[in-house]
Amino acid sequence: MLQCIFLLSESGEVMVEKQMTGHRVDRSICAWFWDHLLSLSLSQPEGGHIAQISQVLTSPTHYLFQVYRHGIIFLACTQVELPPLMPIEFLSRLADILSDYLGALNEDIIKDNFVIVYQILDEMMDNGFPLTTEPNVLKEMVTPPNIVSKVFTAVTGKASPAVGPTLPEAAASCVPWRTTHPKNTTNEVYVNLVEHLHACVNREGNLRRCQVYGEIQVNSSLPGFPDLTLSFANPSLLDDVRFHPCVRFRPWESSQFLSFVPPDGQFKLMSYRVKGLKKIPIYLKPQLTSDSGNCRISALLGVKNDPGKTIDSIMVQFQLPPGITSADLTSNHGTVDILADKTCRWSIGQIPKDKLPCLSGNLVLEPGMERLHVAPTFQVKFKIMGVALSGLQIDKLEVKTAAANPYKGFRAQTQAGDYEFRS
After folding, report:
1. Which end of the chain is more exposed for a tag (fewer CB within 10 A), N or C?
2. In this predicted model, what pLDDT tens digit does every residue of 200-251 receive, in sequence order?
3. Edge-first strand listing for the sheet containing 282-291
4. Rounded to whole angstroms, what are the CA distances from 272 to 131, 213, 315?
5. Where are the alpha helices (DSSP H) in 103-166?
6. pLDDT (tens digit per residue) in 98-132
7. DSSP, residue by residue, 266-320
């Protein structure tokens, strides 16, 4: 049972406070959380980040659970022992729903729409327990903001009524994730395979870790109550699978295929992990030599294993190590920028056919430093459309209860996650 939920900004300001039970949680718990956050940041050599802090914390009086999204900290408090996955999953779902409702998620948007945020929290939780968490049902209960409601609020100074007078029929249905009368049914369904490649290469050039975190995203515009089955050519690759509530678990457990009645619109059908990959699409060879107060740096980037599709949106970035007073960096392809937080960003785009992109330059050390003591870690970003590097392949998608044959579209893409090279 969750007793209170807070929404904090990156500066520690409490933007939303929602008491869920009769036992009131004092706002001072947020001050304790922020002091704890600052102490952890100061204890790390390069400073900590909120996203790297543990999602479960114990204060002298409460158990705390936090999720960080787009500059907003979602913080839940309770004095009762409970499985930590429940509050973490609820806060993650709350962040997704608010992002879907408001179009984006940041501090200004939360402040401009705080009334809707409170109304959504009222419907999503009852006396500290999750109640309605399906976006389709919530949108029938609480109307998303639109141009008319914004003009009404600006003219009258009052929030337009957003809560519906009746309970949606889907709230009492055995499939609450699907609206009773779906709109814009164009009789089509799209399946999008999105993968994030995480890899770590040490300074000797050896691959130490390589795995994929993937999602299957579906956009369904099917009439009625369609029953779908999705099968894979190689389901044995999948590990740590996680399903949308619409997926029937028994067919997957027995035969490794997905059987489900989809929500109307966009949703994440499942997530998964593929471990033990041996190949990476892009290599980076960083070299640093320091002597007499200067450090020469060079980094060569190229294709290691051709995925068969164009590698696009390539970017390399790294944090300038402590003790650097100035940096003079150039490249033979792309642009190099040094940001205010001493992050060097090398934007490449696509790799040209006639040459390999190379970054080179000189770093000037502080007086008294002969050589660099901390070597930077290079982060590489990229995107590959039309291929899933895990090797996962969708075999077929069947729609069993459709009046007419629907249009079915498939797409795959891979992008870099934590893809780093040590120097």
Report:
1. N
2. 999 898 999 999 999 999 998 888 888 999 999 999 999 999 999 899 999 9
3. 282-291, 294-303, 358-365, 324-331
4. 26, 6, 26
5. 107-112, 114-124, 135-141, 147-156
6. 998 888 888 889 988 888 898 899 988 888 888 88
7. EEEEEEEEE------SEEEEEEEEEETTEEEEEEEEEESS--SS-EEEEEEEEEP
Q: Which residues pair with 230 in a beta bridge?
A: 258, 397
What is the pTM assigned to this prediction? 0.77
Distance separating alpha carbons of residues 15 and 98, to the nearest angstrom = 14
- Report CA Rg, the chain: 25
Q: Which two tokens stand for residue 152?
A: 């009404």
| Residue 420 pLDDT grade (very low, low, confident, very high; cuts 50, 70, 90) | very high
Decide if 61 contacts 26 (C-beta within 8 A): no
**Of residues 294, 297, 306, 307, the one with CA closest to residue 376:** 297
**pLDDT confidence band for 49 (50 / 70 / 90):** low
At 179, is the secondary structure helix, strand, or coil? coil
- Which tokens hold the place of 130? 């999750």
pLDDT category at 46 given cuts 50, 70, 90 is very low
Contact 4, 77 (CB under 8 A): yes
Query: Mind giving me the DSSP string for 82-103?
Result: --THHHHHHHHHHHHHHHHHHS
DSSP helix/strand/coil, 58: strand
Residues 415, 418: Cα–Cα separation, whole Å: 10
CB contact at 8 A, 181 and 164:
no
The CA-atom distances, in angstroms, between 295 and each of 230, 290, 323, 331, 370 are 54, 4, 11, 17, 9
What are the phi and psi torsion angles at 172 (to 5°)?
-105, 10
Structure tokens at 43: 């204890």
DSSP 109: H
Q: In what order do the strands lie in the sheet with 394-399?
A: 257-260, 228-232, 394-399
Q: Which of 310, 295, 385 is nearest to 344 (CA)?
A: 295
Strand pairing partners for 304?
none
Strands 228-232 and 188-201: unpaired
Per-residue tokens: 320: 């300038």
Task: Match 């295929």 to its residue by tokens.
Answer: 257
